Every structure is written in structure tokens, then in C-alpha cells.
Amino acid sequence: MKVATTPIQLLEGFPVGPQPTACQHCGDTLQEGDRATVFAARPADTDQWAIHRPYCLTCSPDTIRHPTVGCTELLAQCRLGTRADLATQQIRLIVLEPELTDSSPPTNRATDPRAMPVPPR
């Protein structure tokens, strides 16, 4: 079953990674309560989204500079929160209050002369 949703609804509560997680660019630790930017992507041939790159606000990109052909990509600023699973004793960082700053459809790179094709799987 497929459900239509907005990017904001999709990202709210989405797991970012274990606590603590590091900024993709500078390596600074990101923790609960921090403001951050997350880069999420979904290949066109799947329904699975993933957050690939969290950034601290200092290193945060303003746009998706090099969109990937064949992937829908989202860039959003957010606050980080936690979700705890008491049975497994795991705590994960999650996206709270996302604000979309940029997005890229799967066909966005077709006209970009600098584009490199996605390698075959």
C-alpha cells in the first residue's frame, strides 16, 4: 500500500542515526536539541528513504549542489530529538520540526553538464 505524503510529513520523526551522530562535514557531534540540516534521498526504483548526511548549522549547505540522477532528494533544517526503544535499550536521533530548504526530483541532473551518472548496482 502506498500513501501520499508531503516532504515535511515524511521527515518528521525520521531517524537520523545513533546518538551521538557527527556532522558530515566537520565531524562535530550532533546531539538531542541541536539545530541541524539533513539530506535525505530515495532512489526512483524503491520506496525506501534514508538520511545520508546530517550537518551542523555552521556547515549546512543552502542547496543540493550536485543532485543525483535517479534519486529524489530533500534538504531540510530541523531540530534533533530522540526516540528510545526501551526493550532494546537503543536511543536514536530523529528529525523534529523540519523546514524544507531544497529538493531535487529524480530527473533533475539530466540537463546538468557536470552530471555524473549513477553507477549501476
Describe this structure in words.
- The chain has 121 residues and is mainly β.
- The protein has one domain (7-104).
- The protein contains one helix and seven strands.
- The longest helix has 5 residues, at 7-11.
- The radius of gyration is 15 Å and the shape is globular.
- The model has no long low-confidence stretch (mean pLDDT 86).
In short:
The chain has one helix at about 5-10; strands spanning about 15-20, 20, 30, 35-45, 50-55, 70-85, 90-105. The chain is mostly beta strands and about 120 residues long.
Major sheet: arrangement of strands: 1-7-6-4-5
Order of helices and strands: HEEEEEEE
User: Helical element count?
Assistant: 1
Low-confidence parts lasting 5 or more residues at pLDDT below 50? none
Radius of gyration: 15 Å
User: For the report, how would you describe the main beta sheet?
Assistant: 5 strands, antiparallel
Shape: globular
Overall mean pLDDT score?
86
Strand content: 35-45%
Helix content: under 10%
How many structural domains does the protein architecture include? 1
Please provide the count of β strands. Answer: 7
Structural class: mainly beta
Spatial gap, N to C terminus: 26 Å
